Task: inverse folding
């Protein structure tokens, strides 16, 4: 791949070449005296209230230096600064593309260190205005004791992250409030949520940045119809979160409308009003603010120059070592925390939609691997399910574990001398070591080859503040990988084709197989035809 405009592509970088040489002989973690207590201690980085332990990655000091050099050579931290300052970085040079700033960090940048750049300052001011408006609105709801329940209707970025955080922070929720989610256009999703609700005490927040998403608009119409059937006026129950000027920007149809801007990508929108209305309703406004404070603190950490001071950068580079140099195609993110039950699903979108790209920022096809397949479930449950493959399967799966010293509720019991929390942590630590060092045996079926790279992210307790930091840690890690690969982590052209074809199939359904609609998409018509054969 020839470099365009004098810029080196990823594989032409000096650090890439150095890492390529080093990767021919990666560290063997299964050897005696490799995973020593000293290594575990030395290969750890801390920032804020997190510790990242990476002794069980296949890296030596030499590899770490080369990774740091890769970060420098690709100006990763400078690019992060430029992103947070509001430069237009969401674009592909020379081709028709999105052409926007990327300013989700400004949604939480109105605390101690307001951004100095003018665009970021403006964005932070607008965000603060929406927060204040939300605070007022919620106070009015409180004063009039209007609603006990809230349904968030939205999909993709307007659902996954907000839902993951709400579920993660149940220990902090308001006892008098409940939140529900409808995302799928499958009518059973809405039916199941609505069947047990007293609609007279229920508000609905419809979240769609574009105001055009098929699933969300359909679900809004469906849920409105339930209110009408119950003799209620939906306009007195429905709240909108959308982009200014979108088709949903019609305050006459809503009890209140909140706004987001085109510089906030859907999957990066949790801390904006997209997550804000629901999180502040369900957890209380102060807890929502704590999430913002935490996220802002980690955004600041992402500006640190040294790799070992900058946790998201360090994790990004370790991921790149596994992906591009050790050749691992997937990444399992396993929280040893039941509260994070949907967090990996959010990270799956955040990572795969951002970095599942095949062209670089100059529109050139890349000649290296980009984002990995991201998946996972909480531990210890995963241990009783897919860990067999992770330990002894033929595909090596690097892992990122997340764990907490304390539980959220603090309700625990000593059983046979240890608490539940200690049992949870023992399993996390044991898995990390077992995967790294493996086990020799004369019985091949009882042999563990080891050298399964993994790292552990540890914090004291999953509070709203910690949750904000964790969210930002991953958002920034994903962005760093995109900066280093020089791909655009902020667009999502790959989701368009399916949407276009789904609309052609809808036209066949809507016109009851009109000739024109069938001829416009014969393969789609053939699939519809399969429905006729069902008994
Ligand atoms: C995220 C994507 C996508 C988006 C949904 C919902 O980055 O753009 O998941 O969030 O398609 O979009 P709307 O909020 O516009 O309905």
Result:
């Amino acid at each position: 791949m020839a470099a365009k405009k004098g810029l080196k592509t990823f594989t032409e970088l000096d650090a890439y070449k150095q890492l390529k040489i080093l990767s021919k002989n990666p560290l063997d973690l299964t050897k005696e005296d490799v995973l020593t207590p000293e290594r575990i201690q030395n290969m750890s980085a801390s920032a804020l209230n997190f510790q990242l332990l990476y002794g069980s990655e296949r890296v030596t000091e030499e590899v770490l230096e080369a990774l740091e050099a890769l970060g420098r050579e690709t100006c990763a931290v400078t690019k992060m600064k430029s992103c947070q300052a509001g430069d237009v970085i969401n674009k592909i040079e020379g081709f028709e593309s999105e052409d926007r700033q990327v300013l989700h960090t400004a949604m939480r940048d109105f605390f101690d260190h307001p951004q100095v750049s003018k665009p970021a300052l403006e964005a932070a001011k607008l965000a603060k205005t929406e927060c204040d408006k939300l605070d007022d609105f919620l106070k009015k709801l409180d004063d009039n004791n209007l609603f006990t329940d809230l349904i968030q209707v939205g999909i993709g970025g307007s659902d996954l992250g907000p839902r993951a955080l709400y579920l993660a922070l149940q220990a902090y929720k308001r006892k008098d409030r409940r939140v529900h989610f409808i995302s799928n256009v499958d009518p059973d999703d809405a039916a199941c949520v609505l069947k047990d609700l007293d609609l007279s005490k229920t508000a609905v927040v419809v979240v769609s940045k574009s105001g055009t998403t098929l699933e969300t608009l359909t679900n809004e119409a469906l849920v409105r119809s339930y209110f009408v059937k119950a003799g209620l006026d939906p306009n007195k129950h429905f709240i909108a979160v959308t982009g200014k000027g979108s088709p949903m920007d019609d305050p006459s149809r809503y009890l209140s409308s909140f706004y987001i801007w085109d510089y906030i990508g859907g999957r990066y929108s949790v801390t904006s009003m997209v997550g804000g209305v629901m999180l502040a309703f369900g957890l209380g406004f102060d807890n929502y603010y704590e999430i913002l404070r935490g996220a802002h603190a980690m955004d600041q950490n992402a500006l640190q120059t040294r790799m070992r001071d900058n946790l998201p950068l360090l994790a990004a580079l370790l991921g790149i070592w596994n992906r591009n140099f050790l050749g691992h195609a997937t990444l399992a993110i396993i929280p040893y925390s039941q509260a994070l039950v949907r967090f990996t699903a959010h990270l799956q979108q955040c990572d795969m939609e951002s970095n599942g790209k095949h062209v670089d920022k100059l529109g050139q096809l890349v000649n290296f691997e980009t984002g990995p397949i991201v998946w996972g479930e909480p531990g210890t449950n995963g241990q009783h399910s897919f860990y067999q493959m992770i330990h002894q399967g033929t595909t090596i799966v690097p892992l990122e574990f997340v764990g907490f010293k304390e539980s959220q509720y603090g309700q625990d019991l000593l059983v046979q001398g240890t608490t539940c929390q200690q049992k949870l942590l023992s399993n996390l630590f044991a898995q990390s070591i077992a995967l790294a060092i493996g086990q020799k045996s004369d019985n091949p079926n009882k042999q563990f080859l080891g050298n399964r790279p993994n790292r552990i992210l540890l914090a004291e307790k999953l509070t709203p503040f910690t949750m904000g930091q964790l969210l930002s840690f991953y958002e920034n890690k994903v962005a760093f990988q995109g900066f280093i690969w020089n791909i655009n982590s902020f667009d999502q052209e790959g989701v368009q084709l399916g949407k276009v074809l789904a609309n052609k199939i809808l036209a066949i359904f809507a016109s009851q197989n009109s000739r024109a609609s069938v001829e416009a998409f014969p393969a789609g018509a053939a699939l519809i035809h399969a429905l006729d054969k069902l008994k």
